[in-house]
Design brief:
The structure holds three protein chains of three kinds. Chain B has ten helices and ten strands. Chain B is an alpha/beta fold. The two termini of chain B are 34 Å apart. Chain C is mainly alpha-helical. In chain C, 72% of the residues lie in helices and 5% in strands. Classes of the chains: A mainly alpha, B alpha/beta, C mainly alpha. Chains A and C meet through helix 6, helix 12 and helix 14 of A and helix 5, helix 11 and helix 13 of C.
């Protein structure tokens, strides 16, 4: 049966030429833009679900730099998301009576997360593979525990409520639609950023690191620096997502930043096709949108989710859209695909 | 002038002395060979040169400055590059990207140049891409550049590894059993290619090789290792006639290999 | 304030108890890692299955009166049941979710394991409602199954799983003895004793038996081992069998000791045990035991100086420190050394 699914999938891919792919992308983009403008039943719900999917695509793209490009298995990505969220939460709420503009805090949160990514990176750089996985997992848990217990700073499990709404040219951003558009403006920027990095000298360095760390170092690559760049970039994007999340929700709690967030993001990357940017998008739709839709139907959503993860790995371990390397020898720059 | 000098280098693994008190000089722009039975410490010595292993004793100098103790990436930056006994390409990158990674030490654009894709970045990318295509052409892989390295045929993978090593503009190129797994015709081609490479790029080549025909044909200097120690050194004809080598290393089976090498040269 | 040595000593004893659980679970991680180089993320759930099967069996013993008439036998049967339940789960999980992925990229088995972990947790939680809907299938207005069967199935599943916290009958008494001023319950001694005996037996097995040798051969190189006539699949199955049995044993003991079990109980001990395995040098059997006890004791000592909520911070902080100074764990195994 699995072979059948696989061959069906291949046939589908063949039938849809490159043109069809662009048509689909165009339709999706237009759909995303006009969706909140039209009125239909449960509009607010859909805007929220798709907005969330967008947010997870952002997170996925960030973690993809670390896991997909550089091959560093980071199970504590949620930490950077949390750092971004709490940066905004603390600097724009009644917690300390500080109210700095969202547009100032947003880059600040991302930079702070990137710095903590680099700081975490320094001690763990020498570790490989699974050691790294468990240490980053531990780091994520430590951040969550600290958020829960540093009551003076974070208000503990009561969280930070009443986080300021961003103001955009005099408009207070309160509704889900506002954040929906914010996310889908930030998202292409992030896609742009990681695509450019992927095909640059740094991107090649990351892939080389993933493929064979020893050889990469003997090809003259400073692997330590390359890993720090990957950690920093991934954390930067995570921080960005976190700040948006805090502003959108208006309140944040340590429970929002548990291990399941990291696991979800890792899974969506791998389901989509590790290292592949379109893969992250498809993976987010598969793992964030679908379970949320299933939520309405039944209690069996997570059971199904677990089951599908297994089936997916067996049927198509390389993910929906495996990453490809751009053609450079023969058709340089003529195919500026998303990949 | 010697480009590489190793003085009394010793590398141990627990109780095993893999390289023992090895002193060796490699003249500039020579083609030199290290031979020896399996486990003689040849690859370990390579790993010491490139900084992957730290020798316990001794000193390795490159162009007159000490290099042992430096991290591998710095040593590569100074101009030493290598290939591997069991091919180690970046298998999920295209062939040309493998070469581009090799050019890394000579590139200067940073992350922000890449994001902005400014003129500096575009110029550099165009230049390295041109150079990479030239290197692929030199090793005879034109037209294969966009294939994933792992999809290339075996011989092509070997040549791609050499192209990648050349991409870092080495002054000294270390080849670890470049003809392993090749048929006689491919081997003969590669042997010629190695000499050609030295002339074209004006580099020094040090290789580990088991095929005596290759060794005798291209080496200007041969070093024989056994149990980590140097047991002989000299020009091919000296090595061939050295009783110590024949006794300690070549043995009966390999002695016939020498005969073959003689025949080969005679043809 | 003077340092409370008695409390400290009691914490140490507690550390040994918790460390026993960590060590037993860590062994499963480390053995699977040694053989397959994969993190069996579902191992915590296998431990949880052991606790559930153990509880079900113990409840039957209590119901049937066997527990009253011969408590020791009842407890032994409970242990066997819990261990077997976990072992069967482990072997099945390997066969269904990991074996097809043996040649896949490194991350694929990890994701499959994460999926399995979620699946098992949810399965236990949903068993009763699944039973109800499946046995409630009607054809033409009548139930497919007779009422008695339906009630039996649903009753069994209610008894076995569900979303609620389940409680073990009190098996261990709080009786104990004084060692100086320190009070130690017999249960702690029993747990420590069983764990150490089992672990020593396992070490001997792996070191000296034919199967142990086969296991090490498979860990070294699966293809070569297969060429040498070793049935690789069987060795891997046995590895899962042993590792899961130990986890099941830990599950039963933890249920008896802490009394309350739930479907999410595997998560934290699972993570901690994995930490312990890494601490000791993953793939290394004595390392996993050492790592388990080190972690248990470190947490116990840590909470002496820090608020108890920082227990996990101590565990992970220790891990980070050790890995910084010794990146391959306390007893690094030879296999992880760089090879060229």
């Amino acid at each position: 049966m699995i072979d059948k699914i696989n061959s069906q999938f291949k046939k589908l891919q063949e039938r849809l030429g490159p043109k069809a792919v662009w048509v689909i992308i165009g339709v999706v983009v237009i759909g995303v833009i006009i969706l909140p403008m039209i009125s239909f039943p449960q509009r607010a719900y859909w805007v929220r679900v798709i907005g969330f999917t967008g947010l997870y695509i952002i997170l996925g793209l960030g973690l993809n730099v670390v896991v997909g490009f550089a091959g560093l298995l980071d199970l504590g990505y949620v930490a950077f998301y949390a750092i971004g969220a709490y940066t905004y939460g603390l600097l724009a709420s009644g917690q300390f009576g500080i109210h700095i503009s969202f547009w100032i805090v947003l880059p600040l949160a991302a930079i702070l997360a990137a710095l903590s990514g680099v700081l975490l990176g320094i001690p763990v750089l020498r570790m490989r593979g699974d050691y790294l996985a468990i240490v980053t997992l531990g780091f994520g848990e430590i951040i969550r525990i600290l958020l829960n217990n540093l009551r003076g700073l974070t208000n503990g499990s009561q969280g930070i409520v009443g986080v300021d709404d961003p103001v955009f040219f005099g408009i207070e951003m309160t509704s889900g639609t506002h954040f929906y558009y914010m996310i889908f403006i930030v998202l292409p920027l992030v896609v742009f950023l990681v695509t450019r990095l992927n095909h640059s000298r740094l991107g090649r360095t990351w892939i080389a690191l993933r493929e064979d760390e020893d050889v990469a170092e003997m090809m003259g690559i400073n692997t330590t620096a390359a890993k720090l760049y990957a950690f920093g970039t991934g954390a930067f994007i995570g921080g960005l997502g976190g700040a948006i999340f805090a502003a959108w929700q208006g309140s944040i709690f340590p429970g929002n930043f548990n291990l399941m967030v990291s696991i979800n993001v890792i899974c969506l990357i791998i389901i989509g096709g590790i290292g592949s940017i379109p893969g992250v998008i498809i993976g987010s739709v598969a793992l964030i949108t679908l379970p949320d839709i299933l939520r309405q139907f039944s209690d069996y959503r997570m059971l199904l989710f677990g089951f599908l993860l297994i089936v997916m790995m067996i049927a198509r371990p390389e993910g929906f859209i495996p990453s490809r390397r751009r053609k450079l020898e023969m058709h340089e720059e003529t195919n500026p695909s998303l990949d | 002038m010697n480009i590489l000098e190793s003085t009394a280098v010793t590398k141990q693994f627990g109780g095993l002395v893999a390289v023992n008190n090895l002193s060796l000089s490699i003249p500039e722009q020579s083609i030199s060979c290290i031979i020896g039975p399996n486990g003689a410490g040849k690859t370990t010595f390579f790993n010491c040169i490139v900084g992957f292993y730290q020798p316990e004793h001794g000193e390795i100098t490159f162009n007159g400055s000490k290099i042992n103790g430096l991290p591998p990436y710095k040593i590569t930056g100074l101009g030493i590059s290598r290939t591997y006994q069991n091919i180690r390409l970046f298998s999920n990158m295209s062939a040309i990207e493998n070469v581009l990674v090799g050019q890394h030490p000579h590139m200067h654009t940073n992350m922000f140049d890449a994001i902005l894709r400014n003129k500096k970045y575009q110029d550099e990318e165009a230049a390295v891409l041109e150079e990479a295509r030239r290197l692929l052409e030199f090793v005879g892989l034109t037209g294969m550049g966009d294939q994933l390295a792992r999809n290339l045929p075996y011989g092509a993978q070997r040549r791609l590894e050499i192209a990648r090593a050349l991409a870092s503009k080495p002054k000294l190129l270390l080849l670890d059993e470049p003809t392993a797994g090749m048929n006689p015709q491919e081997t003969a081609e590669l042997t010629k290619f190695i000499a050609q490479m030295r002339d074209e790029f004006q580099i020094t080549i040090l290789l580990i090789e088991h095929d005596m025909r290759v060794v005798m044909e291209i080496s200007e200097q041969i070093t024989v290792l056994d149990y980590g120690s140097k047991i002989a050194e000299g020009e091919p004809n000296e090595i061939q006639s050295n009783p110590k080598v024949i006794e300690a290393y070549l043995g009966r089976g390999a002695a016939s290999g020498l005969d073959q090498a003689d025949n080969g040269q005679g043809e | 304030m003077e340092f409370d040595w008695v409390r400290f000593a009691e914490q140490l004893v507690n550390g040994l108890t918790v460390g026993s659980f960590y060590a037993l679970i860590a062994l499963g991680y480390t053995m699977v890692y040694g053989v397959l180089t994969m993190i069996n993320f579902a191992h915590g759930e296998i431990f949880m299955m052991g606790a559930y099967v153990g509880l079900y069996s113990l409840n039957r013993m209590v119901d049937s009166g066997l527990y009253e008439s011969n408590p020791l036998l009842a407890i032994v049967i409970t242990f066997i049941a819990g261990t077997a339940g976990a072992a069967i789960t482990g072997v099945t999980v390997e066969k269904l979710a990991y074996r097809p992925l043996r040649r896949a990229a490194r991350l694929a088995p990890l994701i499959s394991a994460i999926g399995m972990s979620i699946f098992l947790q949810e399965l236990i939680r949903l068993l009763p409602s699944m039973g109800e809907s499946i046995t409630g299938i009607k054809i033409g207005g009548t139930f497919l199954l007779p009422e008695g069967v339906r009630n039996a199935v649903v009753g069994f599943l209610e008894e076995f799983g569900g979303a609620r916290v389940k409680t073990y009958p009190g098996v261990f008494s709080t009786e104990g003895f004084h060692l100086g001023e320190v009070y130690i319950t017999y249960s702690r001694v029993i747990i420590l004793g069983i764990s150490i005996i089992v672990m020593i037996a396992l070490s001997l097995l792996v070191k000296y038996s034919r199967m142990g040798k086969a296991m090490r051969a498979v860990a070294e190189d699966k293809d070569i081992a297969a060429l040498m006539g070793i049935n690789v699949n069987q060795v891997i199955s046995k590895t899962f069998l042993i590792g899961s049995s130990l986890a099941g044993m830990a599950g039963v003991m933890m249920g008896m000791f802490y009394l309350q079990i739930r479907n999410t109980m595997g998560f934290i001990p699972g993570i901690k045990a994995f930490t312990a395995a890494v601490l000791g040098g993953i793939g290394n059997i004595p390392g996993a035991m050492l790592g388990g006890y080190t972690l248990g004791l470190a947490e116990a000592i840590g909470v002496q100086f820090l608020p108890a909520v920082y227990k996990d911070v101590v565990a992970f902080g220790l891990l980070v420190l050790i890995l910084i100074f010794k990146p391959t764990g306390i007893l690094s195994e030879a296999l992880t050394e760089k090879k060229m």
